[in-house]
Amino acid sequence: MTTKSIDTPHGPARAELHCAEEGRAALLLGHGAGGGVGAPDLVAATRGAQAAGVHVALVEQPYRVAGRRAPAPAAQLDTAWLAVADVLSKEWFHDLPLVFGGRSSGARVACRTAAEGQAVAILCLAFPVHPPGKPDRSRMPELDAVTVPTLVVQGESDPFGMPGPGPHREIVVVPGDHSLRRDAAGLARTVQEWLDRILRPLG
C-alpha cells in the first residue's frame, strides 16, 4: 500500500493505493460524508477489485484530510475528485480504464463526475436515494444520468431507500443496512465478478 497526497483546487486530498499484480483497470473509491476510507464495505470492495486484477485508490476528500467532519459542498467534492482522478490516471495508472465508485456520498460524487472523468463504469455502495424519512428529496436523477455500466449494492433495510432498475444499472440487494458490513466476503465476491464481466470487452 502506498499513500499519496494530491493537490486539488480545494486543498490536498489523499489517495491510498492498493495495486493488483497485473492491473487491467483502476477503481477509484470515495468515502461517505462522515466516514473514512476504512469503512468495511470499501475494504471489501478493494479486496474484490484486486482479485479481479484491478488497482484501487481509496480517495480521501480534502475536508477529511483537513480534519473536518462536515462534508464540503457537492461542487467542491466533484472538483477535488476529478483533480485526483486526473493525477492518478497520468502518474500511477498510466491511462488504464478508470472505474469510479464509492459509498453513500462518495457514490453520488462518482455518478456526478462519471461523464467528465470518462469513467468506463460506476460502483455504488449504499447509494443514498433520499435522506432517511424524506422520500420526496430523491437523488435518483444523479444515478439515472449515468450512461456506463453501473453496479449498486444496497442493504435490504437501508433507511436511505432502494434504487429502482435502469437501462445501465444492476442492483444487488444484500442483508443489512446502510453500512453494508454484514457480509464482507459476499460483497467482495460481488465486486470481483462484476468487474471481471464488465472489463472483459475492454481486453
Automatic annotation (TrEMBL):
Keywords: Hydrolase. Residues 24-162 form the KANL3/Tex30 alpha/beta hydrolase-like domain. SUPFAM superfamilies: alpha/beta-Hydrolases. One of its GO terms (molecular function) is hydrolase activity. PANTHER family: TESTIS DEVELOPMENT PROTEIN PRTD, TESTIS-EXPRESSED PROTEIN 30. This is Alpha/beta hydrolase. It comes from Actinophytocola xanthii.
